[in-house]
Amino acid sequence: YLKQEKCIQAVRQFAKARKIDKRLVAPQYMGLAYYEVGEFQKAVNEFKKVIFLYGSSHLLSETAHHYLALCYKKMGLKKNAYSEAKKVLAHFSLDVYRSALLYRKWLMEL
């Protein structure tokens, strides 16, 4: 459902699967689904779980920090968005330097 941009159905299916076995649904997918349907606080909760489960230096956690920044920006929490965006920039490698420059520009616009 998530790949087909049917995010509301994805949230429902993920919730059903999670009731059966919490390990079946990775929180990053729940977070993405909640983000896409505008449930930003629920998305924040899921992305925080990703960071807790994988540690702050894991690639999934870097993505989670990025989406936390986006969620906080949508929620009008600019200081939180800035803080999360700085965490993303701290983990960029040289092969994504160009993306990092664009991200810095976005960060400055907060």
Molecular structure report:
With 110 residues, this protein is an all-alpha fold. The chain is 73% helix and 0% strand. The protein has 6 helices and no strands. The radius of gyration is 14 Å and the shape is globular. The protein starts with 6 loop residues before the first helix and ends with a helix. The mean pLDDT is 79.
Number of strands: 0
As a percent range, the share of strand residues is: under 5%
* Count of discrete alpha- or pi-helical segments spanning 4 or more residues: 6
Question: Largest sheet at a glance?
Answer: none
Order of helices and strands: HHHHHH
Measure the end-to-end span. Answer: 32 Å
Q: Percent of residues in helical segments? A: over 70%
Indicate the overall shape. Answer: globular
**Derived structural class:** mainly alpha
**Arithmetic mean of pLDDT:** 79
Computed Rg: 14 Å
Low-confidence stretches: none
What's the structural blueprint in terms of helices and strands?
Blueprint: H1 7-20, H2 27-36, H3 40-54, H4 59-74, H5 78-90, H6 97-108
Helix pairs in contact: 1-2, 2-3, 2-4, 3-4, 4-5, 5-6
Provide a compact summary of the structure.
It is built from six helices and no strands.
Characteristics:
about 110 residues; 6 helices; globular
